[in-house]
Amino acid sequence: MSENLYIPAEASKSEKYEAILPQIEALISGEPDLYANLANISSALKEAFGFFWVGFYLVKGSQLVLGPFQGPIACTRINPGKGVCGTAWMEKKTQLVPDVELFPGHIACSAASKSEIVIPVFKEEEVVMVLDVDSDILDDFDAEDQKYLERLIRILEKTF
Ligand code: SME
Q: Could you count the other beta carbons within 10 Å of the beta carbon of residue 20?
């Protein structure tokens, strides 16, 4: 696998996801180091879509702790049930938030973040981390993002 991500120009969102998912799979499937894989996934999503912030929070003890990410500095620790990430963790369900201002308890790491999607990552039916993607555009995520990002997370889960 070469270390270049091919992103089709002038492509629709789903075409971009269809193009990058197999490349990410090729990149991470032979690599046992989790942090390397989380770093490359964050980078690939940022590069393909230009999202404001893309990264992972990992369950460590009784909190989520910041892991590999792309974007501005972010809060380091999140308590269970707090914010969008803590809610995805506790409810074990993707949270698609069109307007973060309307999400009770949203944690504003940056005032620029307007919409957000958080996908839980499972190991043996327990959440072990979450993928958090933030946009500076209101209502920037839809069912298509959810479908492809969940597909990506299923690929990641096969690596550990
Ligand atoms: N907004 C998130 C916190 C993490 S930052 O957006 C990077 C939340 O409410 O959980």
A: 23
Closest residue by Cα to atom 7, ligand 1, is: 74
The pocket around ligand 1, CB under 6 angstroms, is made up of 53, 74-75, 78, 83-86, 106-107, 109, 113, 116, 132, 134
Q: What is the pTM of this model?
A: 0.97
- Is 4 a domain residue? no
- pLDDT (0 to 100) of residue 2: 64
pLDDT per residue over 21-54, tens digit each?
Answer: 999 999 999 899 999 999 999 999 999 999 999 9
* Beta-carbon contacts of residue 109 (< 8 Å; ≥ 6 apart): 53, 72, 73, 74, 75, 134
Flag whether 36 is in a domain.
yes
The number of distinct structural domains making up the chain is: 1
